[in-house]
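Supplementary Text 2. Reproducibility record for the structural model of the 390-residue chain.

All settings were left at their defaults, and a single model was retained for analysis rather than an ensemble. We include the record here because the model underlies the residue-level annotations in Supplementary Table 4.
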Amino acid sequence: MNKIKYFVMAFVAVCLTAGFYSCSKDDDPEIIEKIIEKKDTVIVEKKDTVEVPQNNNWSRYQALVTADVKAQKKHDKVILLVAFGSTWEQAFNAFDATVNAYKAAFPKYDVFLSYSSAICINRAAAGENGVTRNYYAPPFWLNAFADYEVKYDEIVVQSLQVIPGEEYTRVINYIKDFANNSNGDLDDEYLAGVSIKLGVPLLQDAEVDVPLVAQILDASYSDKAAQGVVAFMGHGNPDEYDTYKANVRYTQLEEALQKINKNYFVGTVDMMDNFKTNVYERMKAAGITSGKVFLHPLMAIDGDHGHNDMGGDDDDNWVDGVGFTPNEEGEVEDTSWKMYFRHLGFDCPEENVIHLGLLELQNIRQVWMKHTEEAIAGEPLDYYHSKNPE
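Retained model, structure tokens:
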């Protein structure tokens, strides 16, 4: 097992150097339970024997993914779910539940899950939070779908991102590289005929998705909003990575929520002028300076950001008699949202921290599924003019 972890970590290092952002797949014990090395052969127990060069990590992982796809293939159409990733068991369980929900909702499709974050792949493989999972990047899955013994007729890639930002761009680029046979090792005739479709992120459309998600969130948390502030924490992108200016979706979502109840607020970890300090300033401007605060991650899963940045006990920035010291961007670093609001006099006990990712909310997950249905019903993807927000 130590060798396998070494290979995963070595592979991630290669991916980072080459610009790849790798991903994995849920560890179904019926799929791949154990890997044994014998000279130049990798044996996947219960399944096939796969010949791969032992000095080539890319070939090694491609062979394992391809063997997995061959073993599970039941249909001629496939859905690949692409998430950023996480190292938390709660997130693993959320992704497992999402794959199962997709299999139930799309019975004519095989379903697989991928991460786009090399860091998450590396740390999940190392068992950072006590549970080890091995994941592979989207290119491995797409290449496996095109293997001469597989060759799916239809490939649907569903982005599990919340906003159409930086990570969604990676998803589009994975598809473009695959469809255009960037490595020159796939069947061009197959690629010319296969139908490739893309399901967009949760908040793709400002006029449709944003108000819909606001209504669903209110249906889930109106009881909390009746008692005090419900603050959602999204990720966001720094200005230089704000692809398609997608950060605006957080502002639009707060506006949509506040049309329903003024106690809803939406902040982020990385969006300029929308940190927790900015959320507090907007609360003050609305006359809210005390009372209950409920916290909820506005991310696909409740992982490191939710457990640490939002609900953790990190309190290093606070100094008694001095208060907080914001950085040059106005954010208070080294202090979680929970501790920040507590120091400001708000009532934010542990039970007010809601540890649920958006994929764990069935009605929110249905919005992603709606995007998948729309992708399937729509035209095949134009690889050169991909589905970007207006």
